[in-house]
């Protein structure tokens, strides 16, 4: 019963098999191989655009390199105050931009509200020499609270940003999970809604270690190849990244994996919601569930060996904050979550509740 994160699972077997198959033979190194080229072409098809694609090994690398491409050293990166780029990347965005400043914004359930963005941008006027210059908006899709921006919401935020000369990056560590819930196309959720660069996550949804930076405006990609090499993300046996991405995308496999993960979360959330004393502050939209549990239930689950994170009170409005005998937790399912794990978890929670 491991609900700590979707990267607690291994690689999807089909993707692992593709990796083993691509292991034979010899190919040009550093991404000049047919696997990488095919993966890049497939991503251009998926996004219905002649975008520039760079495969990298980690999500932090994707985010920091993408932000580096969009943001000068004296720039400001606007994001949610609980964003992964703000809190969970050990300063990589600051490092890869050579010193840009992260500006965190508050917002319910992990989302940035249009008015908050307007007010924040107003506090960073262009040309004021003593302040960092407005450069980049970074949106997490899905957010760190497992909530989503609809394409219309993305478009509204990117339009506000563009009005201040600010470009938009999207952290799509859980892009597939968001996409299958929203039911739109990858294009509608990104460049058609004004997104300039995307960190296309795949590792949490089934690859072993492969993500992509997708740059929709070719002019922004001119020096990206050097950034990636200098940042240590040009994998020399690049075909092994390419093979993962091909197997991930082929036959819409990635969407099936995300649907499975999301369906497991729904089952788990429905079960939890029916237990007296458990509160679900916002209904899960992807494969992450946030729940306020009575401490006796939490203790029973943990002593039975189940794993998940205590989440403090992040994202919760004042009225919903956990009481003294409660705890706010995050539970994450993945493509590899088994039904029996969910049943066992709910059984223990019910008995303790
Ligand atoms: C997991 C995650 C990442 C990427 O993390 P890595 O561990 O570096 O691969 C980026 N953004 C969000 C929101 C994430 O959850």
Written description of the protein model:
It is a single chain. This protein is α/β, with parallel strands linked by helices and 353 residues long. It has two domains: 11-253, Aspartate Aminotransferase, domain 2; 258-352, Aspartate Aminotransferase, domain 1, CATH 3.90.1150.10. The protein has 14 helices and ten strands. The protein has helices spanning 13-22, 34-46, 59-70, 84-87, 92-96, 114-122, 151-163, 175-182, 186-189, 224-230, 239-249, 253-273, 295-303, 339-352, and strands at residues 52-56, 75-80, 101-105, 133-140, 167-172, 197-200, 211-215, 288-294, 309-310, 326-332. A seven-stranded mixed β-sheet has the order 1-7-6-5-4-2-3, with helices on both faces. A three-stranded antiparallel β-sheet has the order 8-10-9. The longest helix has 21 residues, at 253-273. The mean pLDDT is 96. It binds pyridoxal-5'-phosphate (PLP). Pyridoxal-5'-phosphate binds at residues 58-60, 63, 84, 140, 144, 171, 173, 203-204.
How is this fold's topology laid out?
Layout: H1 13-22, H2 34-46, E1 52-56, H3 59-70, E2 75-80, H4 84-87, H5 92-96, E3 101-105, H6 114-122, E4 133-140, H7 151-163, E5 167-172, H8 175-182, H9 186-189, E6 197-200, E7 211-215, H10 224-230, H11 239-249, H12 253-273, E8 288-294, H13 295-303, E9 309-310, E10 326-332, H14 339-352
Parallel strand pairs: 2-3, 2-4, 4-5, 5-6
Antiparallel strand pairs: 1-7, 6-7, 8-10, 9-10
This protein binds pyridoxal-5'-phosphate (PLP).
Residues 58-60, 63, 84, 140, 144, 171, 173, 203-204 line the site of pyridoxal-5'-phosphate.
């Amino acid at each position: 019963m491991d609900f700590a994160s979707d990267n607690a699972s291994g690689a999807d077997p089909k993707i692992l098999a593709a990796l083993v198959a691509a292991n034979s033979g010899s190919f040009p190194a550093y991404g000049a191989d047919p696997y990488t080229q095919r993966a890049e072409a497939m991503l251009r098809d998926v996004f219905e655009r002649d975008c520039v694609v760079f495969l990298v090994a980690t999500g932090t690398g994707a985010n920091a390199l993408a932000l580096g491409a969009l943001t000068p050293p004296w720039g400001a990166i606007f994001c949610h105050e609980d964003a992964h780029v703000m809190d969970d990347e050990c300063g990589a965005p600051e490092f890869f931009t050579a010193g840009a400043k992260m500006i965190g914004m508050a917002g319910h359930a992990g989302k940035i509200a249009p008015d908050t963005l307007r007010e924040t941008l107003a506090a960073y006027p262009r040309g004021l020499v003593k302040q960092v210059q407005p450069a980049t908006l970074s949106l997490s899709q899905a957010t760190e609270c497992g909530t989503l921006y609809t394409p219309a919401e993305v478009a509204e935020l990117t339009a506000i940003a563009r009005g201040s000369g600010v470009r938009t990056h999207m952290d799509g560590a859980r892009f597939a999970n968001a996409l299958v819930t929203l039911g739109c196309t990858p294009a509608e959720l990104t460049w058609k809604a004004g997104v300039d660069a995307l960190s296309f996550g795949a590792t949490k949804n089934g690859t072993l270690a492969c993500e992509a930076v997708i740059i929709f405006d070719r002019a922004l990609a001119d020096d990206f190849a050097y950034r990636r090499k200098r940042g240590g993300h040009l994998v020399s046996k690049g075909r092994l990244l390419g093979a993962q991405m091909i197997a991930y995308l082929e036959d819409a496999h990635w969407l099936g994996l995300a649907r499975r993960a999301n369906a497991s979360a729904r089952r788990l959330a429905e079960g939890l919601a029916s237990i007296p004393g458990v509160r679900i502050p916002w209904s899960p939209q992807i494969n992450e569930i946030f729940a306020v549990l009575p401490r006796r239930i939490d203790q029973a689950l943990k002593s039975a060996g189940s794993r998940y994170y205590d989440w403090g009170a992040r994202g919760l409005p004042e009225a919903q904050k956990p009481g003294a005998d409660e705890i706010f937790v995050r539970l994450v399912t993945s493509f590899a979550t088994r039904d029996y794990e969910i049943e066992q978890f709910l059984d223990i929670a019910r008995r303790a509740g």
